[in-house]
Each structure stands twice: as C-alpha cells, then as structure tokens.
Write a structure and sequence with these properties.
Layout: H1 10-34, H2 37-51, E1 57-63, E2 65-66, E3 69-70, H3 72-81, E4 92-95, E5 104-107, E6 112-117, E7 120-134, E8 146-159, H4 163-184, E9 189-198, E10 201-208, H5 222-236, H6 239-245, E11 250-256, H7 263-274, E12 277-280, H8 289-297, E13 303-307, H9 324-336, H10 344-352, E14 362-368, H11 376-379, E15 386-389, H12 395-405, H13 415-422, H14 429-436, H15 442-458, H16 473-476, H17 494-506
Parallel strand pairs: 9-12, 11-14, 11-15, 12-13, 13-14
Antiparallel strand pairs: 1-8, 2-3, 4-5, 6-7, 7-8, 9-10
Helix pairs in contact: 3-4, 12-14, 13-15
Keywords: ATP-binding, Hydrolase, Magnesium, Nucleotide-binding
Catalytic activity: ATP + H2O = ADP + phosphate + H(+)
Family: Belongs to the AAA ATPase family. BCS1 subfamily.
C-alpha cells in the first residue's frame, strides 16, 4: 500500500489532468481540421458498434397491415396462436357464431404465448396500442374532433441462431397451418363498410353470411343457370391459364333486369356454391379514390365484391359529352376540396387496370335495374365478362318455387292452367314467392295464384311477344337488336322516352 508520503499532491494531480485535457482538445481540433465530417461520423458509429453489448435475441414485428393491404402473416399468426394458449395466460377473448363449430379464442393485449418448434422456443406477444387522431373525413359541422384507433401487432422473439429456421420453416409452417384451419372451419362472411372504426377512412366489418339461397332453390332459367355454374367452375380451375395469358385472375358479372327477379339471391347462391365471402361495397359512403383503393385491396382472395344498383348508387363522373357542364362543375368543386373526389376511372382502374392484379380468384358483380343507364366504359369486354339478364318468372321457375314452398308434385291439375297464363304475364319470382306464402293449403294457394294471373292479364300487364326470357351467354352475341334502336330527334319528351324504354323491355330486347 502506498503511504501518504508516496501519494501525489492534489496540485500535481490537477496539473496532470489539465495537461491531458489540453492534449485531447488539441487532438480533437487537429482531427476536425484534417478528417472530413462524413468520415468522422463513420468512425464514431463504428466505435459505438464495437463497444455496444451484443443482444442474443432477435424480435420480429408483425403488424396487422402493411401500408394499405392486410398482412397475411398477422392473420395466420392470430389463427395459429389461438391453438397455443396455455394455463399461464390470464386474459383471453372468447367468441362463437351460430355456424361455427367451436369457440374462437384470441389473445388479449399484452398476453404472451410460448410455442416450441423443432427443439427451439419461440415467444409471442400481442401488442395493441390505442391513439386518438383527427378524423380527415369529418368535413361536416359535427362536433367530433377525433376518433380512437387501434394499431395491432405481434412480437415474435427468439435466439439469433434460429433466424434461418424462422424464415425458412417456422413462418411458412404457421401460414400453412392457418390455411388448413380456415378451410376446416370455413364460415362464409358478409363484409360491409364501417365508417367509424379507423381515423384513416372507412374499413370493412363483417358478420356471418347465413343466406340460404342455392342454385337448387333459385327460380332461374335452367339453361342460364347451368351456364352460370359452368362458368364459375371453369373460372376457379384456370389459375395457370390466367397466369399464362397475362391476365388478373378475376371474373366480372353484370346482373340486370327488373326489380324482384332474383339478382341478390343469385349472388348468395354463387357465394354458397363457391364458398366465397361477400364484400358489399356501398359507393355512397366513399368520397375519395384513395379510400376506394384501400378498401378494394383489403378484400380477401376467394371473395365476391358486390356493387348493387350501380346506376343509382352514386353519381360518378362519366364520359358523355352531354354532361360536360356537370363535369366542369365537379372539377371546380374538387379544386376547393381536392380530397373529395370519387371518379369512375378510379373504379375502372381496379376492375381491369394495374390495381386489378392485387389479389387472386376474385369475382366482381354489378347489379342494375336499368342497363341502358350505365356508362359504356363499364360494359366493354374485359370488365364485365358475363352479362346475365334476370328475367320475369317462367313456367319452369314457377314449378321450382311451387315445389320449394308447397311441396306439390309436378303433375298438379292446376299446373296446366298456370302454364297457359304465366308465359304471357310479367310477374317476378319475388311476386310468385309472395303469393305462394299466403296459405299453407296448396290447393287454396294455387287457386289464388291463378286468380292473380287472370287479374294481371285483364289489367294488360302482359308481354307483347311472350315472356322476357333470359338467354344463355353463348346466344347473347347472336341476339338481334332489330326494333330496339331509338331514333333521336327534336320534340321527344321524357315521358315518351320512358314509355319507349318500357316497350323495349317488354319485347325482350337488350341494351
């Protein structure tokens, strides 16, 4: 040990410190003068990296969405981890819908799960962060300044040495396992818009699709029904074909015809036939093309996107020269509020433009009661691949409805009289179904239906050239349009135009 005599005096210690400090300042000044700033920054970062303690654990962040599209890994992890809960978990979310086979278990925020895989342990943690942000869609004078949003993600932590295993084996295993679980417990969903969920705009919300309509119960022309089913079967089997020819794997349908002819029932039958979810898009709730893109990209594969009553759901800017003044006015309004603009081109770009390739095995269905009102840009080949005319009820359709509702045999005595009347009457399947539900007695119900047909015939509610039947798709291109062209001239009133359109529909002409 040093004796007090051998210890340096405070003045010598201070002198040495001052000398060392001066030397360091001199070296620092020389370094600043001789070494450029980028090199000095690089050296400092390298020095910090060398002295920083190395972590032996790697953490992957799996967020719910990646930009404007959902994260497939997040959805797979959410489903997979529901089967890996343990007694150590203290808070879990439990739910069950009527059609689901068993309880659905989800992690509550902050909960952790340990999952062993090939001798390694992987630790999961569910993160749910809440925040309040201003609502950019609140353009009205409403006293709502902000809305609450949630940002959800999973944290996956594991030793660094298992990085290759996680990327090459573990995560692909979770994706495949989640797909198997989804196929085994498939419950069809009806997705609709929720405008209050997220601050960044509208978002999809879902309920179980429990519509019982099938092709077996659908009152539709048999030949047209078989053509639709064959077209659907061909579509789902042609993934390689679409890829080979360079087209997005999607199919477009236009359902048109009078109200009550079964357009919505056909959509439900198609969903039940293919086991596809339905996304019901109401264009009236969307104000910008950017919101429309986010919604369409958030739709899942193997789904049906439905836009009902496209001719009257929203006044989209079209390309008719007769509406130039309306378009100019919309452009002036758009300059005042540049974010408030939903255009027809934005919708068409997703149907068959560059955005159409963002997703596989999708069906897009438009419905309308007035096909002649649609913009020609919607009807051109490549957008609506198949036009399906939902017509008035035929005799074959009536027999199917009678069998479903009354369970009557096909040789019922009243069927002959009904066949002679219904072929000349404009009556929709919805009207027929309503009549067949009025009485549980089959004979009384059919007699009442005969009276209805006779009354409609006396009132003149008949077809001039027979029923307005729908033709199979292979005959649509051969359909002649003689007598269906409207002459343009001066002095034609709106009333005459409507009358001419009604007459054309009665003659079975397409537009």
């Amino acid at each position: 040990m040093l004796s007090p005599r051998d210890m340096p005096s405070p003045s010598s210690i201070f002198s040495a410190y001052a000398s060392m400090t001066a030397s360091m300042m001199l070296l620092r000044s020389m370094a600043n003068e001789l070494i450029p700033q980028p090199i000095r920054g690089y050296l400092m970062n390298a020095f910090r990296y060398l002295i920083k303690p190395r972590s032996q654990t790697l953490t992957l962040i799996i967020e719910e969405s990646t930009g404007i599209a959902r994260n497939q890994v997040y959805d797979a992890a959410e489903a997979y981890l529901s089967t890996r809960v343990s007694p150590q978990n203290e808070r879990l979310k439990i739910s069950k819908s009527p059609k689901e086979k068993k309880l659905t278990i989800r992690l509550e925020k902050g909960e952790k799960v340990m999952d062993p895989f090939h001798g390694a342990s992987f630790h999961w943690r569910f993160i749910c962060a809440e925040s309040e942000k201003n609502n950019p869609n609140d353009h009205n004078n409403i006293n709502i300044s902000s809305v609450r949003s949630e940002k959800r993600s999973f944290e996956l932590s594991f030793p660094n040495k298992y990085k290759e295993m996680v990327l090459d084996s573990y995560l692909p295993f979770i994706l495949e396992k989640a797909k198997e679980m989804k196929d085994d417990e498939r419950v069809l969903k009806m997705h609709t818009l929720n405008t209050t969920y997220c601050y960044s705009g509208v978002k999809w919300d879902s309920i179980n699709l429990e519509h019982p309509s099938t092709f077996d119960t659908l009152a539709m022309d048999p030949e047209l029904k078989n053509a639709v089913m064959e077209d659907l079967d061909r579509f789902v089997k042609r993934r390689d074909f679409y890829k080979r020819v360079g087209r997005a794997w999607k199919r477009g349908y236009l359902l048109y015809g009078p109200p009550g002819t079964g357009k919505s029932s056909l959509i439900a039958a198609m969903a039940n036939y293919l086991k596809f979810d339905i996304f019901d898009l109401q264009l009236g709730n969307i104000v910008r093309d950017s919101d429309l893109r986010k919604l369409l990209l958030a739709t899942a594969n193997r789904s049906i996107l439905v836009i009902e009553d496209i001719d009257c759901s929203i006044d989209l800017p079209d390309r008719d020269r007769d509406r130039d003044r309306d378009r100019d006015r919309r452009h002036l309004d758009a300059r005042k509020q540049p974010d408030l603009q939903l255009t027809l081109s934005g919708l068409l770009n997703f149907i068959d433009g560059l955005w159409s390739s963002c997703g596989d095995e999708r069906i897009i269905i438009f419905t309308t009661n007035h096909k002649e009102r649609l913009d020609p840009a919607l009807l051109r080949p490549g957008r609506m691949d198949m036009h399906i005319h939902m017509s008035y009820c035929s005799y074959q359709g009536f027999k199917l409805l009678a069998s479903n509702y009354l369970q009557t045999p096909s040789d019922h005595p009243l069927f002959g009289e009904i066949e002679g009347l219904i072929e000349d009457i404009q009556i929709t399947p919805a009207q027929v179904a309503e009549e067949l539900m009025k009485d549980e007695d089959a004979v009384a119900t059919l007699e009442g239906f005969v009276k209805l047909l006779k009354r409609k015939k006396m009132e003149g509610d008949v077809c001039e050239n027979g029923p307005d039947k729908a033709e199979p798709p292979h005959q649509q291109s051969k359909r002649r349009k003689v007598g269906c062209k409207q002459k343009r001239g001066v002095g034609i009133s709106k009333t005459n135009t409507v009358t001419q359109r009604r007459t054309r529909r009665m003659r079975g002409c397409s537009f």
